Amino acid sequence: MIALVVLEEFGGTKKHFKTGDLIFKEGNQPLYYHQIISGEVKMNNFNDEGKEFIQGIFYKDQCFGEPPLFTDQVYPANAVAVTDCEIITITKDKFLELLKNNPDISLKVIKNLSQRLYYKSVMAAEISSQDPEHRVLRLIDYSIEQFHFKKENAGFLINFTRQQIADLTGLRVETVIRAIKSLEKKGDLKIINRKVYR
């Protein structure tokens, strides 16, 4: 997203998180811009019954949690390290200064936010009206495009667990497993050594 050398010029600090570490908590005041150097991060919420809903999963070179930096509102979700991570952060003031001084980077940030807003709109419509197979396939297709999943001989390797697909689509894991098996029978997906390919 933003070159590390630029973030370092604006006081960027590298931090390490272990799998499962909380990076920031829902309801906290946003103080920093976060960008992943290595690893994987998810943003999540839990409903009253304790079921997790994943708002998004983020990978190397992606930023997360930045919308509240512009609105002076609290974080709407938690950020949790899915794997061991290295993350670079800069303070909110320095981030806004960076954007003011670099219009090209500002446009990249706007485009990134717009893509996420588009994804949220698409998934909200899918979750409210479509059957499980359609939801799973739509998530997979969108993720291939946005996260640049690796193409192998069998197709695009879907880098989500069944649990993550469930948490991203609002479905139960059992429903996701049935949907994936059905999509495999229809030829829309392949399952090789328990890995899902499109």
From TrEMBL:
Species this chain originates from: Flavobacterium flevense
InterPro entries from the UniProt entry: cNMP-bd_dom (IPR000595), cNMP-bd_dom_sf (IPR018490), Env_Response_Regulators (IPR050397), HTH_CRP (IPR012318), RmlC-like_jellyroll (IPR014710), WH_DNA-bd_sf (IPR036390)
Pfam short name (any one): cNMP_binding
Residue span(s) of domain Cyclic nucleotide-binding: 15-116
Native organism taxonomy: Bacteria, Pseudomonadati, Bacteroidota, Flavobacteriia, Flavobacteriales
Record's protein name: Crp/Fnr family transcriptional regulator
Keyword terms: DNA-binding, Transcription, Transcription regulation
Domain HTH crp-type intervals: 130-198
CDD domains linked: CAP_ED, HTH_CRP
Any one GO cellular component localisation term in the record: cytosol
UniProt cross-references to SUPFAM superfamilies, sorted A to Z: cAMP-binding domain-like, Winged helix' DNA-binding domain
SMART domains documented for this protein: cNMP, HTH_CRP
Source taxon at top rank: Bacteria
Recorded GO MF terms: DNA binding; DNA-binding transcription factor activity
